């Protein structure tokens, strides 16, 4: 059977709990005993297809450049034809502390990490010590012999740098060169990746890598797969490109982890993309400035995390009342308050649903990976302008800062870029009452239009009113847009189904847990239902996706099961919940174990 | 739209004798003159906050953004960046602009955003029926401070000088001709223009008897001298008994925020190609 995931169609076999399917969805074909066996090439018990898969960890101190080293490892695997997921784990500090990146490559799409590692690249002793319980019989450890002692193969980075007269910062190239050799990766691939992805001192970096490459021996060969390499994007970059495809003209943001990457990315590319990027004094200014842009006729978006969004709520309510289109990216981290700044969470779903005083329609979408982020960010911008409503994109740290393979070939974004515009027949009434509730747009500067927007209750022309009948009329007009929005969203794949589509036990999940839930769903023979649209709540498609389930298990990375509460309001009653709220994303193994406890 | 009626039919609810009438009338005259001089009023936007002053958005028949309390300036900044051809005027209150939205005022001055900020400074909250504002004098007895405030007022002119505003003036609603010249000068100025307008609140702070004998126009003031501007700005600290200088205290010419931030537009095709290139660079 075929399952429409929204972006791709997966061919999915019917499964039972005894037999695991091959090609059954993202990464879900592996056996628990994989690590005791060859670990990299796995034979699927169901169809005997060989599935290739590898997990690499690189760790060191903050300031060691772990993130960029991880990105290079990811590119090596990408160029071997692997689909990538990279998770970067770091504390909230600039120097010191333990940073690590886990890069998982698979022949098929992946969106989560495994606990066991095939390679550990240790720049210091702490990396060896901290991840000891993640090794298996065949784990290859490559370590900096100057700072660490371990089984495996050591490299004296200091000696290599001295011989090459290379600066300390190039030490990571030595460890990556050593890894490439240990994994049997052809030198030509290392050279290609370095040439493409090292902006400065590439020749010297290559010489450093080569020395390590020549010192080590092959211990676990990573065989190439038959896939072409794909663009690797983190969630923030995917959101940025999606917004641009939706017609973004101005991005306004105040730095806040984990949304800052989006600000940095768009600021770095703003000239190429022809957009203005502004970093104002605080989040209050951010949202008001963006509303100024939109009133002036420019498509704008803002980005922040929960704390910054707290400051934006009065501006959000203004957007709702004044009917000014706006996209808000709220990337979640562990709360409440400052919480864990660099760790993940899904605790802002109910917050963004209810933020801002008063009642007005809004769109909330929660993409599950970079590919969905690229697609839905364009849609969010389009919808915001079509219906003149605030539109939220709700990622989390896992998605924003996780890196994914993105297959842009399969994406067509149905962006219309057409807002309803004024017919240029005066008088212009900004809030003209229409059957759809959507009033035609005009911008200041338009000939003969007096464009009045207002935070007060107002009449069709935008003049303040306290007259009861007009207040009711205008409230009804705004709420009619919600009805239109519900109808409009029916044209989009609002709910994705993964795993075993007809299984009686379903996981109900949202956002970045898509990847891990999909794998667990395939492994355990569960249906995995992932609403991407959260508001307006897609009741009908969600009920269809959950039809004939006997048990619904809500999987969320928060402490109160916020999607479960929302579903319950709409008559969908989850039977069990599996929650994690320590800032760390579910791993496949931990989720499977937790699910087994609640599966009837 | 030429020859439009500049005042709307909306019922005016300012108290008789309110200083807001003067500012509205002055702005109306300035707008009419702009139109006569060939400037289309379709290209003018007025942003107001919340408070008595802000009702001007309902009363003037031009493009308006009736914003939130304290939030005129970021909105105005966004509008000006979105469309540099627009003339953007902010009407703010003193509670609005010096309390709730003070950060925005400082930053707009620091950035030299090409907008004109007119502060309707009656030194009291009117619409919320009489509480002290950041410019109320020490000991001001308002509804929230029945025993008198325990804090000194701030001096907005000094603050603006320190923050980088490039047109700083003070007017008085009982000096209409001068006020008109000051507002006109501010609108014509390229860069961040700030005009603190002393106005009375007929109901909660009718201070005309205080202002009228004290205001004066400094002779031979060179507004390009920052040091002289500082001396004049400090002459009256909004608290103690002193002469109150009016007029343009400071002007300077610097590049505007919008000029520095300007991004060259790209076509849809160029943009899609840029996206494609970025994606290709990630392989």
Identify the notable features of this structure and list them briefly.
heterodimer, A: 600 residues, alpha/beta, Pyruvate-ferredoxin Oxidoreductase, domain 3, Rossmann fold, nine-stranded mixed sheet, seven-stranded mixed sheet, 18 helices, globular, disordered N terminus, B: 283 residues, two-stranded antiparallel sheet, 11 helices, 11 strands
Strand content of chain B: 15-25%
- The fraction of residues assigned to DSSP E strands of chain A is 15-25%
Give the helix/strand class of chain B.
alpha/beta
Q: What is the number of domains of chain B?
A: 1
Largest sheet of chain A: 9 strands, mixed
Strand order of the largest sheet of chain B: 2-1-3-4-8-7-11
Structure summary:
Chain A is α/β, with parallel strands linked by helices and 600 residues long. Chain A has 18 helices and 24 strands. By secondary structure, chain B is α/β, with parallel strands linked by helices.
Description:
The complex is a heterodimer of chains A (600) and B (283). Chain A is built from 18 helices and 24 strands. Chain A is α/β, with parallel strands linked by helices and 600 residues long. In chain A, helix 4 packs across helix 6 and helix 5 packs antiparallel against helix 6. Chain B has a single domain, classed as Rossmann fold (3-Layer(aba) Sandwich), CATH 3.40.50. The mean pLDDT of chain B is 96. The chains are: A alpha/beta (600), B alpha/beta (283). Chains A and B meet through helix 7, helix 8, helix 9, helix 10 and strand 18 of A and strand 1, strand 2, helix 3, helix 5 and helix 11 of B.
């Amino acid at each position: 059977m075929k399952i429409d995931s929204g972006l791709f169609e997966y061919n999915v076999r019917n499964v039972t709990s005894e037999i695991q399917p091959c090609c059954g969805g993202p990464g879900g074909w592996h056996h628990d005993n994989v690590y005791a066996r060859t670990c990299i090439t796995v034979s699927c018990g169901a169809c005997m297809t060989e599935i290739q898969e590898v997990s690499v960890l690189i760790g060191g101190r903050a300031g060691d450049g772990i993130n960029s080293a991880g990105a290079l490892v990811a590119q090596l695997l990408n160029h071997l034809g692997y689909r990538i997921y990279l998770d970067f784990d770091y504390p909230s500090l600039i120097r010191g502390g333990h940073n690590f990146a886990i890069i998982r490559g698979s022949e098929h799409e992946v969106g989560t990490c495994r606990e066991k590692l095939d390679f550990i690249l240790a720049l210091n002793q702490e990396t060896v010590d901290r991840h000891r319980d993640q090794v298996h019989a065949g784990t290859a450890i490559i370590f900096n012999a100057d700072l660490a002692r371990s089984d495996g193969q050591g490299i004296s980075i200091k000696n290599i740098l001295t011989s090459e007269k290379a600066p300390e910062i190039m030490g990571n190239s030595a460890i990556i060169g050593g890894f490439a050799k240990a994994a049997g990766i052809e030198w030509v691939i290392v050279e290609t990746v370095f040439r493409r992805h090292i902006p400065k001192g590439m020749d010297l970096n290559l010489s450093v890598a080569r020395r390590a490459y020549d010192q080590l021996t092959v211990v676990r060969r990573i065989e190439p797969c038959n896939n072409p390499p794909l663009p690797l994007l983190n969630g923030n970059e995917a959101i940025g490109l999606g917004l641009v495809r939706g017609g973004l003209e101005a991005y306004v943001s105040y730095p806040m982890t984990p949304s800052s990457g989006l600000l940095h990315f768009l600021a770095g590319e703003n000239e190429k993309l022809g957009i203005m990027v502004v970093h104002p004094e605080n989040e209050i200014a951010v949202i008001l400035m963006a509303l100024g842009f939109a009133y002036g006729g420019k498509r704008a978006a803002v980005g922040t995390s929960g704390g910054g969004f707290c400051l934006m709520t009065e501006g959000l309510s203004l957007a709702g009342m004044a009917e000014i289109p706006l996209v808000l990216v709220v990337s979640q981290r562990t709360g409440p308050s400052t919480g864990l700044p660099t760790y993940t969470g899904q605790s802002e779903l109910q917050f963004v649903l209810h933020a801002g005083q008063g009642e007005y329609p809004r769109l909330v979408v929660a993409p599950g990976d970079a590919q969905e982020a690229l697609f839905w960010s364009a849609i969010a911008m389009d919808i915001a302008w079509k219906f003149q409503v605030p539109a939220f994109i709700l990622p989390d740290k896992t998605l924003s800062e996780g890196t994914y393979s993105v297959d842009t070939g399969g994406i067509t974004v149905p962006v219309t870029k057409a807002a309803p515009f004024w017919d240029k027949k005066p008088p212009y009434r900004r809030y003209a009452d229409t059957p759809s509730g959507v009033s035609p747009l005009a911008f200041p500067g338009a000939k003969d239009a007096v464009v009045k927007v207002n935070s007060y209750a107002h009449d069709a022309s935008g003049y303040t009113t306290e007259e009861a009948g007009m207040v009711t009329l205008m409230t009804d007009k705004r709420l009619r847009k919600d009805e239109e929005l519900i109808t409009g969203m029916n044209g989009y794949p609002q709910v994705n189904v993964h795993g075993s589509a007809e299984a009686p036990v379903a996981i109900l999940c949202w956002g970045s847990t898509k990847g891990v839930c999909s794998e667990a769903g395939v492994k355990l023979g569960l249906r995995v239902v992932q609403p991407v649209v959260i508001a307006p709540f897609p009741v009908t498609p969600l009920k269809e996706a959950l039809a004939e389930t006997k048990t619904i298990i809500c999987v969320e990375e928060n402490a109160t099961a916020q999607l479960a509460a929302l579903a319950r309001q709409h008559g969908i009653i989850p039977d069990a919940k599996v929650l994690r709220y320590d800032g760390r994303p579910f791993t496949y193994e931990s989720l499977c174990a937790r699910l087994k406890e609640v599966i009837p | 739209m030429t020859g439009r009626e500049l005042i709307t039919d909306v019922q005016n609810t300012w108290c008789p004798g309110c200083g807001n009438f003067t500012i509205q009338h002055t702005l109306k005259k300035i707008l009419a003159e702009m139109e006569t001089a060939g400037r289309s009023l379709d290209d003018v936007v007025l942003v107001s906050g919340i408070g008595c002053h802000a009702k001007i958005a309902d009363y003037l028949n031009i493009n308006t953004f009736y914003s939130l309390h304290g939030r005129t300036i970021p909105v105005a900044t966004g509008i000006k960046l979105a469309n540099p051809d627009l003339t953007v005027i902010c009407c703010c209150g003193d509670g609005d602009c010096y309390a709730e939205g003070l950060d925005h005022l400082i930053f707009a001055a620091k950035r030299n955003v090409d907008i004109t900020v007119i502060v309707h400074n009656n030194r009291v909250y009117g619409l919320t029926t009489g509480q002290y504002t950041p410019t109320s004098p020490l000991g001001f007895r308002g509804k929230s401070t029945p025993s008198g405030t325990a804090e000194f007022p701030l001096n907005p002119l000094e603050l603006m000088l320190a923050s980088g505003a490039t047109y700083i003036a003070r007017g008085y609603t009982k000096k209409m001709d001068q006020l008109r010249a000051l507002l006109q000068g501010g609108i014509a100025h390229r860069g961040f223009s700030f005009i603190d307008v002393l106005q009375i609140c007929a109901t909660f702070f009718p201070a005309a008897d205080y202002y009228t004998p004290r205001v004066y126009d400094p002779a031979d003031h060179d507004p390009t001298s920052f040091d002289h501007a500082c001396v004049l700005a400090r002459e009256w600290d909004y608290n103690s008994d002193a002469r109150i200088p009016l007029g343009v205290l400071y002007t300077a010419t610097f590049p505007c925020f919008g000029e520095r931030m300007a991004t060259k537009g790209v076509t849809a095709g160029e943009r899609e190609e840029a996206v494609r290139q970025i994606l290709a660079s990630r392989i």
